[in-house]
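Thread: pyridoxal-5'-phosphate complex, take 2
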Amino acid sequence: MLSSVLSDEELEELMLELEELSDDPIVRSLLAFYVKRSPQYEIPEKPLAPDMVYYMISNELKLDGNPALNLASFVTTEMDENADKLFMENAGKNFIDQDEYPYSNWIQDRVINILARLYHAPVELEPVGTSAIGSSEAILLGLLAHKWNWRKKREAERKPVDKPNIIFGEDVHVVWKKFARYFDVEPRILPMGHDKFVLDVDMVRENLDENTICVGTVLGTTFTGETDPIEEINQMLEEVKEEKGWDIPIHVDAASGGFVVPFIFPDVKWDFQLSHVKTINVSGHKYGLVYPGIGFLLFQDKADLPDDLIFEVNYLGGVMPTYNLNFSKGASTVITQYFNLLNLGREGYEGLMHVLMLNTNYLSNLMEKSGKFKILNKESKVLPLVAFELDDKVPFDVFTLSDRMRQKGWIIPAYTLPKNAEDRAIMRIVIRLTLSREQINILYNDLMDACESIERDIDSVLREIDKEEKLELSKKFHDSIC
Ligand SMILES: Cc1ncc(COP(=O)(O)O)c(C=O)c1O
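Output below.
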């Protein structure tokens, strides 16, 4: 054995010399895998065998978290194999090349039409929309349109346009704050209550003025999965319009809720049925059940999308209207969103969302009965997720529990709530389609085991402290009698 006669350094040197000498990509690949670090900065001088490169990279990526156990994310991790086939067949199409790939773009139009109907766009209007990389891009585009519309209206009235503001709650995703900063709009961020984690209608009213470009609301918040009182805010905005003449639109961030609520809570009014809801975003890659990254932005009516935000591009052949922040993106996500809509249909989505909600309630009931957890979204659930705190008598915090669950492979985030409730630390389990009832039982057992093992650790530390204190006392006693 070479390794028994050479030191590690000598062995490494020998391998590197061998690599220099060998022109065989397999030998070089083996050496690259076993002896060298993967290239970190420089492109390798010589090629490596593709099988070996694949193996090296996929082997390293196995160290990533397991997406099936990632209960932090809403994002789809598995699709039907026919959807996978379509995804790969179209992976090389750049969606922006509308002239070369018109059918991909027509498919987008059909998805937009279907979503607009699902969200009750009035038939006498002309709903339009666009696909985006995710809800984040869709939200930025929607809010930009509101800023433009507000400015146009103010300019027509010969009023100042230097102080636009936007109102939303602390319950929003970070992209709302990005919009305010990147696009120079004053954010009026309304605090949550200590026990109420969505917008307060009166507080929204107090903060409105003639410079408010839009009120932002969320259907299924990132923090607790609850929903802002969208219908009540709409009613209040109707009154304000009547009293003061301010016609302030609502944007609904339905990133997660947009593919859940229409199917299992059809009576909840949150969409274009409400007079002030002018724009809606939804993430296809969440409960739309498509791989990342796809989102959609919908306008209730073409008139709400300002013409001067649409760019006509002619350098790919033909003239293409675009309303996006980025340019190139893959066509596969748009196409597979269409696949899901056709394949599942209304009944399919309804069935799946009901099943997710059943399993969510099953887990949340088990957890509540254990006496160790307080469920935060028991009454107000519109998304299949369990948001919870630890019971007051539990002697450790959610961050410790999150760490302990990570050791078992489960990824369950722990975080503090925003302003006014920042002293409350919670955890969130997102129930996705990959999680079977059996896995939910395993998850629950792992949660209980994790709690017990942390309690055992605390006990043993306390016993150790106790022992040290007793030793100290007995030493003092011994010293005093000697
Ligand atoms: C309510 C809400 N809005 C926006 C986003 C951002 O969505 P995306 O990841 O699709 O860009 C999220 C992501 O979780 C979200 O929960």
